[in-house]
Input
Amino acid sequence: MVLSIKQLVAASWLALIFLVAASIPLSAQQSSSYDPWLDYNGDGQISASDLSSLAQAYGASGESTRNVTVVGHLTKLERVAVNVSLSPHTSWNSNLIWVDGYIKMTILISLIPNQSNKLYVYAYDSTGLSGPSWVIEQISSIPTYWVKTYDVFNQQLRIGLENTSTDYCVLNVEVYLIA
Output
Protein backbone atom coordinates (compact mmCIF):
# COMPACT_ATOMS: atom_id res chain seq x y z
CA MET A 1 0.00 0.00 0.00
CA VAL A 2 2.91 2.41 0.69
CA LEU A 3 4.15 1.93 -2.86
CA SER A 4 0.81 2.93 -4.43
CA ILE A 5 0.67 6.15 -2.35
CA LYS A 6 4.16 7.07 -3.59
CA GLN A 7 3.06 6.38 -7.14
CA LEU A 8 -0.04 8.55 -6.61
CA VAL A 9 2.05 11.41 -5.19
CA ALA A 10 4.60 11.12 -8.00
CA ALA A 11 1.84 11.09 -10.64
CA SER A 12 0.19 14.12 -9.00
CA TRP A 13 3.48 16.05 -9.02
CA LEU A 14 4.09 15.11 -12.63
CA ALA A 15 0.57 16.23 -13.62
CA LEU A 16 1.05 19.51 -11.75
CA ILE A 17 4.37 20.13 -13.52
CA PHE A 18 2.75 19.52 -16.93
CA LEU A 19 -0.19 21.80 -16.05
CA VAL A 20 2.11 24.63 -14.96
CA ALA A 21 4.32 24.17 -18.02
CA ALA A 22 1.28 24.26 -20.31
CA SER A 23 0.00 27.51 -18.77
CA ILE A 24 3.30 29.40 -19.14
CA PRO A 25 3.20 31.54 -22.30
CA LEU A 26 5.92 30.74 -24.77
CA SER A 27 5.87 34.19 -26.38
CA ALA A 28 9.43 33.99 -27.62
CA GLN A 29 8.71 30.71 -29.40
CA GLN A 30 5.24 31.51 -30.76
CA SER A 31 5.15 32.20 -34.47
CA SER A 32 1.38 32.60 -34.88
CA SER A 33 -0.49 35.84 -34.38
CA TYR A 34 -3.42 36.51 -32.08
CA ASP A 35 -6.74 35.22 -33.45
CA PRO A 36 -9.78 36.67 -31.61
CA TRP A 37 -11.93 33.74 -32.77
CA LEU A 38 -9.75 31.44 -30.63
CA ASP A 39 -9.96 33.70 -27.55
CA TYR A 40 -13.12 32.14 -26.12
CA ASN A 41 -13.32 34.26 -22.97
CA GLY A 42 -12.43 37.51 -24.79
CA ASP A 43 -9.65 38.57 -22.41
CA GLY A 44 -7.17 39.42 -25.18
CA GLN A 45 -4.97 36.35 -24.61
CA ILE A 46 -5.20 32.78 -25.83
CA SER A 47 -4.41 30.79 -22.69
CA ALA A 48 -5.24 27.68 -20.69
CA SER A 49 -8.57 29.19 -19.63
CA ASP A 50 -9.59 29.24 -23.32
CA LEU A 51 -8.68 25.56 -23.54
CA SER A 52 -10.77 24.91 -20.45
CA SER A 53 -13.77 26.62 -22.06
CA LEU A 54 -13.23 24.60 -25.21
CA ALA A 55 -12.98 21.35 -23.21
CA GLN A 56 -16.23 22.10 -21.37
CA ALA A 57 -18.05 22.84 -24.62
CA TYR A 58 -16.57 19.85 -26.50
CA GLY A 59 -19.29 17.84 -28.24
CA ALA A 60 -21.95 20.58 -28.03
CA SER A 61 -23.85 21.61 -31.15
CA GLY A 62 -25.97 24.58 -32.20
CA GLU A 63 -26.24 27.52 -34.59
CA SER A 64 -22.82 28.38 -36.06
CA THR A 65 -23.44 32.08 -36.76
CA ARG A 66 -21.80 34.78 -34.64
CA ASN A 67 -22.70 38.42 -34.07
CA VAL A 68 -20.08 40.51 -35.85
CA THR A 69 -19.68 44.29 -35.95
CA VAL A 70 -17.60 45.51 -38.87
CA VAL A 71 -15.83 48.73 -37.96
CA GLY A 72 -14.56 51.30 -40.43
CA HIS A 73 -16.79 50.42 -43.37
CA LEU A 74 -19.59 52.36 -45.01
CA THR A 75 -22.72 51.54 -43.08
CA LYS A 76 -25.25 54.05 -44.39
CA LEU A 77 -25.57 56.52 -47.23
CA GLU A 78 -27.92 59.50 -46.86
CA ARG A 79 -28.76 61.27 -50.13
CA VAL A 80 -29.70 64.58 -48.56
CA ALA A 81 -30.20 66.61 -51.73
CA VAL A 82 -30.52 65.26 -55.26
CA ASN A 83 -30.44 67.82 -58.09
CA VAL A 84 -31.91 70.62 -56.00
CA SER A 85 -32.18 73.83 -58.02
CA LEU A 86 -31.21 76.91 -56.02
CA SER A 87 -32.49 80.27 -57.20
CA PRO A 88 -30.20 83.29 -57.01
CA HIS A 89 -29.84 84.78 -53.52
CA THR A 90 -31.69 81.91 -51.79
CA SER A 91 -30.80 79.49 -49.03
CA TRP A 92 -31.31 75.75 -48.68
CA ASN A 93 -31.27 73.74 -45.44
CA SER A 94 -31.39 69.97 -45.10
CA ASN A 95 -33.64 68.14 -42.71
CA LEU A 96 -31.97 66.86 -39.56
CA ILE A 97 -29.72 63.87 -40.25
CA TRP A 98 -29.26 61.35 -37.42
CA VAL A 99 -25.57 60.51 -37.01
CA ASP A 100 -25.68 59.14 -33.46
CA GLY A 101 -24.10 55.68 -33.23
CA TYR A 102 -21.60 56.24 -36.05
CA ILE A 103 -17.90 57.02 -35.59
CA LYS A 104 -17.23 58.95 -38.79
CA MET A 105 -19.20 60.85 -41.39
CA THR A 106 -18.14 62.10 -44.79
CA ILE A 107 -20.04 64.92 -46.46
CA LEU A 108 -19.87 65.24 -50.25
CA ILE A 109 -21.31 68.31 -51.94
CA SER A 110 -21.46 69.16 -55.62
CA LEU A 111 -22.60 72.59 -56.74
CA ILE A 112 -22.86 73.21 -60.49
CA PRO A 113 -22.04 75.75 -61.73
CA ASN A 114 -19.83 76.84 -58.90
CA GLN A 115 -20.73 80.42 -58.13
CA SER A 116 -20.53 82.54 -55.04
CA ASN A 117 -21.96 80.53 -52.16
CA LYS A 118 -21.71 79.84 -48.42
CA LEU A 119 -21.76 76.45 -46.71
CA TYR A 120 -22.84 75.78 -43.13
CA VAL A 121 -22.76 72.48 -41.23
CA TYR A 122 -24.46 72.53 -37.83
CA ALA A 123 -24.56 69.90 -35.09
CA TYR A 124 -27.51 69.30 -32.77
CA ASP A 125 -28.14 67.17 -29.71
CA SER A 126 -31.17 64.90 -29.29
CA THR A 127 -33.54 67.87 -28.83
CA GLY A 128 -33.09 68.77 -32.51
CA LEU A 129 -34.00 72.18 -33.88
CA SER A 130 -35.61 73.23 -30.59
CA GLY A 131 -32.34 72.71 -28.71
CA PRO A 132 -28.87 74.19 -28.94
CA SER A 133 -26.73 73.92 -32.06
CA TRP A 134 -23.09 74.56 -32.82
CA VAL A 135 -21.19 75.19 -36.04
CA ILE A 136 -19.02 72.35 -37.32
CA GLU A 137 -18.08 74.02 -40.59
CA GLN A 138 -18.59 77.44 -42.15
CA ILE A 139 -17.04 78.14 -45.54
CA SER A 140 -17.55 81.34 -47.52
CA SER A 141 -16.96 79.75 -50.93
CA ILE A 142 -16.80 76.06 -51.76
CA PRO A 143 -15.44 74.51 -54.98
CA THR A 144 -17.61 72.61 -57.44
CA TYR A 145 -16.94 69.38 -55.52
CA TRP A 146 -16.32 69.51 -51.79
CA VAL A 147 -15.63 66.51 -49.51
CA LYS A 148 -14.73 66.39 -45.83
CA THR A 149 -14.68 63.63 -43.19
CA TYR A 150 -15.45 64.29 -39.53
CA ASP A 151 -15.44 62.32 -36.31
CA VAL A 152 -19.01 62.06 -35.01
CA PHE A 153 -19.43 63.79 -31.66
CA ASN A 154 -23.07 64.81 -31.83
CA GLN A 155 -26.43 63.19 -32.46
CA GLN A 156 -27.85 65.14 -35.39
CA LEU A 157 -26.55 67.17 -38.28
CA ARG A 158 -27.94 69.86 -40.57
CA ILE A 159 -26.36 71.20 -43.74
CA GLY A 160 -27.16 74.60 -45.18
CA LEU A 161 -26.09 76.35 -48.35
CA GLU A 162 -26.63 79.96 -49.37
CA ASN A 163 -26.50 80.83 -53.06
CA THR A 164 -25.16 84.38 -53.02
CA SER A 165 -24.75 84.59 -56.80
CA THR A 166 -27.09 85.98 -59.45
CA ASP A 167 -27.33 82.59 -61.22
CA TYR A 168 -29.20 79.36 -60.59
CA CYS A 169 -27.17 76.38 -59.41
CA VAL A 170 -27.82 72.66 -58.92
CA LEU A 171 -26.98 71.15 -55.53
CA ASN A 172 -26.28 67.52 -54.59
CA VAL A 173 -25.46 66.50 -51.01
CA GLU A 174 -24.56 63.02 -49.75
CA VAL A 175 -23.58 61.99 -46.23
CA TYR A 176 -21.68 58.73 -45.78
CA LEU A 177 -21.91 57.30 -42.25
CA ILE A 178 -19.30 54.85 -40.98
CA ALA A 179 -19.76 52.58 -37.96
User: Anything to note?
Assistant: The longest strand covers residues 74-86. The domain at 74-178 is CATH 2.60.120.380 (Jelly Rolls). The chain has two helices and nine strands. Residues 2-23 form the longest helix (22 residues).
